[in-house]
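In this section we walk through a basic example: taking a raw amino acid sequence and producing a predicted 3D structure, encoded as discrete structure tokens. The instruction is simple. Fold the sequence below.
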Amino acid sequence: MCGILVTNALALNCVAAPHPARSLLNKRAPEITRADLTGTRVDLKSLRGKVVLLNFWATWCAPCLVEMPVFSGWQQQYGASGFQVIGISMDDDVAPVRTLVAKLKTSYPIGMGDAKLGEQYGGVMGLPLTYLIDRKGIVRARFQGETDTKAIEKELKTMLDRR
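The resulting token sequence is shown next.
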């Protein structure tokens, strides 16, 4: 919300950014209910009790394409320990997403994102954007841009160890 700043008897209108990024750290993750590429419903709320890695990505994002096979490996490695990866493609067209997902053989659900969902997550201004959400649905970590996957995995393992 933008108000009026009065200083030295001058009134100046402040200008708010159109979509200010807000921190979701230590707050409940905004709800997501979407169909994945197979038509299966993905509901973030139904995953309470699991640690969730929520990854916003796109087919044209080179760092995203490097992370996705790593995330698939983690899904297979840590899934039985209460871990779930959800991918959200920010592409405008589903066709290249389907092609890429088939090529990479991802082991986790992929849904399509949009501007509204991006705004709920603080404004997706750069990709990849990854959130780690704890078993209670609270956002505990945020990784923006090309990230060291070892840093994400370290945080992930810590969260999985907490019961």
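Looking at the output, two observations stand out. Residues 59 and 65 are 7 Å apart (CA to CA). The mean pLDDT is 88. In the next section we compare this with other chains.
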